[in-house]
């Protein structure tokens, strides 16, 4: 894959539905051929394992991308998935403490996602490390 970049994708929803919605997004992204060919997806947890528990809550999707990955395709895929959900949950993608929220203007979200995943951009758009749309 050459040089890779890792990002975390999170779905903001109520805790009882968090794992279900996260898995739904993970499955949706796995079925997108443009993403499947150029990225590695896995589910993970933002919480440390609890001794004696059955397992951690799977509340994030890890995305590892290499050259040839299309950030705009990721944005369109997440936006399309959001449209299929009854509550249209907020989805954030984070890399190195910088966050892009998928929603609002599709063009602006695509531009921000491209900057996030390629490391380009001046960073002038945002001073607090969070690009919410």
Q: Can you characterise this structure?
A:
By secondary structure, the protein is an alpha+beta fold. Helix content is 37%, strand content 25%. The protein has a six-stranded mixed β-sheet. Helix 4 links the parallel strand 5 and strand 6. Helix 3 packs across helix 4. The N and C termini lie far apart (30 Å).
Brief descriptors of the model:
133 residues; alpha+beta; 6-stranded mixed β-sheet; 25% strand; disordered C terminus
Q: What is the secondary structure topology, with strand pairs?
A:
Layout: E1 5-12, H1 15-30, H2 33-38, E2 39-44, E3 60-65, H3 71-84, E4 90-95, E5 98-102, H4 106-118, E6 130-131
Parallel strand pairs: 5-6
Antiparallel strand pairs: 1-3, 1-4, 2-3, 4-5
Helix pairs in contact: 3-4
Task: Provide a brief overview of the structure.
The chain is α+β, with helices and mostly antiparallel strands and 133 residues long.
Q: What's the helix count?
A: 4
Globally, the shape reads globular
Strand order of the largest sheet: 2-3-1-4-5-6
Please give the number of β-strands.
Answer: 6
- Structural class of the secondary elements? alpha+beta
The run of helices and strands is EHHEEHEEHE
């Amino acid at each position: 894959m050459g040089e890779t970049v890792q990002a975390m994708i999170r779905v903001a929803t109520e805790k009882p539905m968090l794992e279900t919605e996260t898995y739904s997004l993970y499955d949706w992204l796995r079925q997108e051929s443009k993403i499947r060919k150029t990225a590695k997806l896995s589910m993970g947890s933002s919480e440390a394992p609890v001794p004696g528990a059955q397992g951690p809550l799977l509340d994030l999707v890890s995305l590892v991308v290499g050259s040839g990955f299309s950030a705009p395709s990721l944005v369109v895929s997440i936006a399309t998935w959001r449209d299929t959900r009854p509550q249209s949950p907020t989805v954030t993608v984070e890399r190195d403490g910088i966050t892009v929220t998928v929603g609002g203007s599709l063009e602006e979200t695509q531009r921000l996602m491209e900057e996030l995943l390629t490391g380009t951009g001046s960073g002038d758009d945002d001073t607090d490390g969070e690009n919410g749309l």
